Amino acid sequence: MKKLLFLACISLAITPMFAQTSTPTAQVQKDINKVLKFTNDNYNMGNIPYGKPTEFVVTIENISAAPITLNNVQVSCGCTTPKFQANAVIAPGQKTTVTLGFNGSAMGNFTKNATLFLSDNLVKTVNFYGVGVQ
Question: Among the four 19, 42, 67, 117, which has the fewest Cβ within 10 Å?
């Protein structure tokens, strides 16, 4: 009887692991490319002189039939500054931009990112990388 009870408990504990589907983040990332087109979302800054600030522009184009709003941009560290119009509505066929500035405070290889939060629970992570040189 103890063995039967033990097996029942184990099978109840294991069953939820097999019932899981794809993660919400993977689903959101998959869907975002159907409604928005990004330019410079994985940007190579090349060699950056140490301490010299630089910036680049990410372009977001609405390729869907409905308006989408850029709600917020959150950066991964204090060395990156975003410039964008909060709550900017991107009409179908229209574009908006996010300018990401980097203060150049890295020596050697670096990778940074910023997360864009849009309406309809759409989220996009933008990456940039380069090499800080003396």
Answer: 19
| Diameter over CA atoms, the chain | 72
pTM for the model: 0.75
Residue identified by tokens 């301490």 is 51
Check the CA dihedral 121-63-57-133 and report its sign: positive
What is the rounded distance in angstroms from the CA atom of residue 36 to the CA atom of residue 120? 12
The pLDDT profile of the chain, 134 residues, written as one tens digit per residue, is 666 555 555 555 554 444 444 444 454 555 898 999 999 999 999 999 999 999 999 999 999 999 999 999 999 999 999 999 999 999 999 999 999 999 999 899 999 999 999 999 999 999 999 999 99
